[in-house]
Amino acid sequence: MNAWMEEMGASQETDTLLQSIFANISDAVLVVDHSGTIVTVNAAMERMSGWSKEELVGSKHICEICLGMATCQEESTCTDCFFKRTQMPSFEMRVRTKDGREYPVAASSTRLPEGADGKMVMILRDMTMQLRAEKERYQHKLTNFVIQAQEEERKRISRELHDGVGQALYSILVGLNVLGQGKLSGPMKQHVTEIQQMTAKAMEEVKRMALELRPSALDDLGLLPALRSLIKRVEKSFGLSVDLHVQGEWQRYSAPVETALYRIVQEAMTNTAKYAQAHTLGIIFEAREKELVVTIVDDGVGFDVELAENKGSGLGLFGMKERAQLLKGSVDIRSVIGEGTTVIVRIPVAKGEAEDGHSSLDRG
């Protein structure tokens, strides 16, 4: 008798535990009968679908909620439905909610043993967050691929302009100089002189284009020399006074890090020079133990950052942030109309991130 009572107590305890699991599990669980009518659901299914237990049980057919299985060929199909099978351990389906929304779920189903009147148990897990995360990872990889391909193409074209077109123009200029030293009539000498001037201007333009695409100093000497060259060009072209300060022991870093920082600073300087009506621009590089921090401050007219981003007019700002995020960094843009703009860039670097074989650069 005592053994029977202990067995009954254990059975009741197991039933209570199973009921608690059914009620509190985060995945949606529903049971349908042999015809597909919903027999019972747990609280998670109520939250997922938007319908109450009373609205679902005995009233809704599984096909009113299920929008079909996902296959390799189709996102939603009823061909070879899971309901026709005894068991499907894993598949995807789309669920329709009470308010008409549709979203994907990971599902599994199994037909209960004989004696359960052909009932089927289904477990559904919301995949919305998972799919969003996968989409973000895919976009992250795609953006990284595009930026790398763009930089490689910029490097190739820059080299070709410098070594190909630039050298050809230089050879033409040398030939014109030799020709100009010969005995030429007045009009002919004037004509040669004009062609020399045009060729010299074309050489300068090709050089400028090659530098804009990708300065060779960035690959050969590193970030700071490339930026110092950029600063000189900006000061000369726009009359902007730029101060560069370097704090900490600066070294050569990996190509992705140096390229990203160069492009971000270049974009910030270009925006300041073209739109900010600024007189001075300050750039501070801090080489910290675990991160590189670049602060760019101007005394310009400022702008509404949120408005620019929401209107889509801040594509340059978006590109700056994208480049930093690809390196698990960040770009914080602070601006007040009439009070200038501050851009703070943070790029994490692991210990030993600096490239081997490069000595510390001179302090700026």
From TrEMBL:
Record bears the keyword 4Fe-4S: yes
Keyword Phosphoprotein appears in the UniProt entry: yes
Molecular function via GO: kinase activity
SMART domains (alphabetical): HATPase_c, PAS
Record SUPFAM superfamilies: ATPase domain of HSP90 chaperone/DNA topoisomerase II/histidine kinase, PYP-like sensor domain (PAS domain)
Organism (species): Brevibacillus ruminantium
Entry-linked Pfam families: HATPase_c, HisKA_3, PAS_9
Catalytic activity, reaction form: ATP + protein L-histidine = ADP + protein N-phospho-L-histidine
Superkingdom of the source species: Bacteria
PAS domain residues: 14-65
NCBIfam families given in the database record: sensory_box
Enzyme class: transferase
Cofactor: [4Fe-4S] cluster
Domain Histidine kinase: 261-351
Protein name: Sensor histidine kinase
Annotated keywords: 4Fe-4S, ATP-binding, Cytoplasm, Iron, Iron-sulfur, Kinase, Metal-binding, Nucleotide-binding, Phosphoprotein, Transferase, Two-component regulatory system
The protein's role, per its UniProt record: Member of the two-component regulatory system NreB/NreC involved in the control of dissimilatory nitrate/nitrite reduction in response to oxygen. NreB functions as a direct oxygen sensor histidine kinase which is autophosphorylated, in the absence of oxygen, probably at the conserved histidine residue, and transfers its phosphate group probably to a conserved aspartate residue of NreC. NreB/NreC activates the expression of the nitrate (narGHJI) and nitrite (nir) reductase operons, as well as the putative nitrate transporter gene narT.
Classification lineage: Bacteria, Bacillati, Bacillota, Bacilli, Bacillales
